[in-house]
Amino acid sequence: MKGRNMTRWRDPAKDPRQEPKSNLITAEGAERLRGILDHLSRVKRPALSTKVGEAAALGDRSENADYTYNKKELNRVIARIRYLTKRLDELQVVDRLPEETDRVFFGAFVTLEDEDGEEMQLRIVGHDETDTAKRWISVDAPLSKALLGKHLDDEVSVAAPGGETCYVITEIDYRRP
What phi and psi values does residue 65 have, to the nearest 5 degrees? Predict the structure, then answer.
């Protein structure tokens, strides 16, 4: 197979992209995905369908940039709708607090302190709702895996590109907005 889909060969046994992703999501994340799906289905897709129809009515489609662009955009939106529909069926919504709120579990807001005394706040969320700007990390991330099940004041070490980094858990919270 030639073209844009060709990539270099990777050994599936060693490729981190082949690791199974968890199907967990917070209630807020699931609601956000449903909102995106609803917007794409009810607003974006009909608008693009109308644009494609209008552009097609103008005549020669091979030289009609409006038709070509809107058709590609419509296909992208349809693919996204299919993906979200399938993904929402697979996801398991975690909408309750764990029994032990003094330990780190899925959905926790965690404050960590590194060796230099600098604090970092993050939240453990599902793969579909990660956000680096908010410091929401995937439950599948190495730091999350190291944190899960730990208590307040536990020390956690994580392999990082610059070497191993150690953190101390200074706060665990489940009720932040």
Answer: -65, -35
Give me the pLDDT at residue 69, please.
92
For 112-139, how does the pLDDT look when each residue is reduced to its tens digit (9 = 90+)?
Answer: 998 888 999 999 999 999 999 999 999 9
Per-residue pLDDT tens over the stretch 60-93: 777 888 898 999 999 999 999 999 999 999 999 9
CA distance 122 to 101: 16
- As a whole number of angstroms, the distance between CA 172 and CA 98 comes to 12
Token pair for 90: 């697979």
CA distance 106 to 127: 11
Considering only CA atoms, give the Rg of the chain.
Answer: 22
Burial (Cβ within 10 Å: 0-12, 13-18, ≥19) of residue 172: buried
- Residue with structure tokens 């858990």? 169
What burial letters (b/e) apply to 31-63, b meaning 16+ CB within 10 Å? eebeeebeebeeebbeebeebbeebeeeeeeee
Task: List the structure tokens of 110.
Answer: 């965690």
Distance of alpha carbon 137 from alpha carbon 129, whole angstroms: 8
pLDDT tens-digit map of 24-33: 999 999 999 9
